[in-house]
Specification:
Elements: H1 2-9, E1 17-18, H2 27-34, E2 40-41, H3 44-50, E3 58-61, E4 67-71, H4 86-95, H5 105-108
Length: 121
Amino acid sequence: MFKELAGQYSKQVNFVVVVISDDEYSEKEIREKFGLDIPVTFDQSLAAACGVYSTPQVALIDNNSKLYYRGNYNISRYCTDKKTNFAMQAINGLLAHNQKMTFSKLALTSYGCRLANCNKN
């Protein structure tokens, strides 16, 4: 989901992967493993400042450095339903300068999971 959003909105939104665990992977390994051409940081203070405590979560920060959205990408790990594509809805709201967006509890309650394909061999 993240890779798809980064590809679709890369001209309008600056994307960064923030690793919030003490991971044995390097920035280069993460970028190569997931085919990402965006920055990867291990600065956990950024996640903490946005209230992100588990993955996967999205934190959208507006041009005034104000947190616009913190929540799930979608209703579940493999969900592709546009009605519950919370990250895309939030990005579209931010780009439209919609300050009155509201999201359900499902969007805002982290469910946490490990990233797929993250087993070091």
